[in-house]
Design goal:
This protein has an eight-stranded parallel β-sheet. It has a single domain, classed as Metal-dependent hydrolases (TIM Barrel, Alpha-Beta Barrel), CATH 3.20.20. The mean pLDDT is 97. The chain is α/β, with parallel strands linked by helices. Helix 2 links the parallel strand 2 and strand 3. Helix 3 crosses helix 4, helix 4 packs across helix 5 and helix 8 packs across helix 9. The protein is built from nine helices and eight strands. The chain is globular. The longest helix has 17 residues.
Amino acid sequence: MLVDSHCHLNFPELVNNMQALRQSMTDQRVGHALCISVTLPDFPQVLAIAEAHDNFYASVGVHPDYEDEPAFTEDELVALASHPKVIAIGETGLDYFRLTGDLEWQRDRFRTHIRAAIRAQKPLIIHTRSAAEDTLRIMREEHAEQIGGVMHCFTESLEVALQAIELGFYISFSGILTFKNALSLKEVAKALPLDRILVETDSPYLAPVPFRGKTNQPAYVRYVAEELAILRGISYQDIEQATTENFFRLFKQALPCN
């Protein structure tokens, strides 16, 4: 069985199609999925999806793109993360691609998430785009190595990946890995230690080839795993086993149910 380590099943493109999505997961041997929070007002919906299904889990956090979200505290994140179906803090991080100007508020929020994760003893899910240097700097300053986590939907350089791994983080690849023009990312995927790799969909976004441009779903994580196997010259079964073991090693509070 595979695990989709990052998806947004509460988004409108997917939330009303749960039965079909779950059947597709079964058909493609995708046994588990981590449903990711991007705002605190929407967190109850994310949690409800995880509570309704034994093989779904939830995170709690605020995506760095959501500038207008209500203020929140470290204590609030820790309290919300105490639910047994919440296995991670995030997604959090820095994004200098979509937003410009004084982004100190992003960096402050990121620090709050890291501190909450350490207190809650639940790994971080980190988003970084056009901000790798500051992301790694803040991870070091806030001692993110004390809890670890995953660099999700990774698109940065091999050097960035290795620095994150040194801090105890895993690297997760999405459908971008299957794109023909993702040549540098393919090289990163070939070079990393297999015991530090996860796979994800980031659905409903970034559908892999052959579904590029369509709505993504957790079942399609199989195509990411297949591409990873081809790039590394090993069997699909080896990728399936390794990435699933990696997921449950990182997210220790997630209990395999099949």
